[in-house]
Amino acid sequence: MKNQEHILIIGAGLCGSLLALRMAQRGYRVTLMEKRPDLRKEVIDSGRSINLAFSDRGMKGLRLAGLEEKVLPLCIPMRGRMIHSADGQLFMSPYSGRSYEYINSISREDLNVMLLDECEKMPEITMLFNQRCTGVTLETAEATFEDYHTKEIKSYQADVVMGADGVGSALRKSMLDHRKFLFSYGQDFLTHGYKELSFPPLGNGGYQVEKNALHIWPRGKDMMIALPNLDGSFTVTLFLSWEEGKDSFESLNSDAAVTDYFEREFPDALALMPDLLEEFKTNPTSPLGTIKCSPWHAYGKVLLLGDAAHGIVPFYGQGMNSAFEDIFVLDRYIDKHEGDWKAIFKAYQDERKEDTDAIADLAVDNFHEMKAHTARPIFQEKRKLEIA
Ligand code: FAD
């Protein structure tokens, strides 16, 4: 074994589990700590999107870890955007003229389970669940955790701590509170939140609408999208304003108001949603925001990756994909500077920050594009010409 340095990774979500696997493949000793239960053993409500658009950017990270063949059976190709106009018409707007260029729909849970199963096979990785990180001592790479059941507090010493603990990152908070170097941090919420709903499968397991498309109902100020799942269902996401006034999450506060809104805005979808009223009441309404911070590292001892470093709104479907690409880029700098974490982290951020800032801004722009411009006749005309 060429390398026995100890890397402690906070968060066994999509980024943390792939990161753990790749670091173990490189020969590091890895401890992967997760605040939730093991999702392979307990049903947990992640509170996050059920399925995701998975693109070539993300595939680079999985390919690096030798997982391309394992992930493909979990993917449903989406070859274009299927636009459901207000007057009930459908337009397919392909992502590319080339048949091999498309994005995939993938289940967050299936993907995370596959990654955790791969981690389990590596003797270099120790996985501990129900462990919530409460803080990190940056200079010494010592991280403290609280056990969910016993409430016992325990500290773990590592050579390096990597925070893949998502938008609410405990490591990022420790960096913000540290006050011995300048740490920039900004969080911008969108005017709109989201709620997940569904189209159930047909009785024979088939799909109620075109399977190989990302469906969009652009309505100017609001929008709904649907991505296919392997079982024939679709996960439907409604993006709606938080603000007071007509057609906001605040105003849709009764069965009658919800039904009236869907009858006006999404009548074709309403016909496919037998559980709409129940789901609307039960499923959470969540905010969307952008997080930018800098630096992502300190003392050659700690590093932020994935949403912990760069939380973005989902309108380019690139949050997870960027998190996987983080691992791909980090791996290249480990090749170059192995043994010098300060140099690795600096080179990594120097390359990566500009790109993640750009996708964060593009994602906000695409929110406006998707909810409004895709509904414009000129856009549809242009796309029809492209298809022809
Ligand atoms: P997370 O997935 O948030 O994982 C963080 C992990 O850390 C979790 O398991 C959490 O339990 C754990 N954790 C948190 N705090 C602690 C702590 N204190 N101690 C220990 N563990 C902790 N991205 C795409 O690429 N394509 C899409 O189509 C897409 N759609 C999206 C739709 C919606 C509605 C949303 C909200 C996001 C979407 N994203 C999409 C973004 C994507 O979900 C994230 O970018 C991705 O999950 C980031 O992975 P991560 O591992 O960095 O963070």
Notes on the protein architecture:
The chain is α+β, with helices and mostly antiparallel strands and 388 residues long. The protein folds into two domains: 6-79 and 107-188 and 289-371, FAD/NAD(P)-binding domain (3-Layer(bba) Sandwich), CATH 3.50.50.60; 191-286. Helices cover 34% and strands 27% of the residues. The protein contains eleven helices and 22 strands. The longest helix is centred in the C-terminal third of the chain and has 31 residues, at 341-371. Flavin-adenine dinucleotide (FAD) binds next to α1, β3, β9 and α9.
CATH superfamily of the largest domain: FAD/NAD(P)-binding domain
CATH class of the largest domain, named Alpha Beta
Radius of gyration: 22 Å
The set of bound ligands, ions and cofactors reads: flavin-adenine dinucleotide
N-to-C terminal Cα separation, in Å? Answer: 57 Å
| Largest sheet features | 7 strands, mixed
Q: What is the averaged pLDDT score?
A: 93
> How many strands?
22
CATH topology of the largest domain: FAD/NAD(P)-binding domain
> Poorly predicted ranges (pLDDT <50, ≥5 residues)?
378-388
**Number of alpha- plus pi-helical segments:** 11
The class by helix and strand makeup works out as: alpha+beta
How is the largest sheet built, in terms of strand order? 6-5-15-16-17-14-18
Which strand-content bin applies to the residues? Answer: 25-35%
Give the tally of structural domains.
Answer: 2
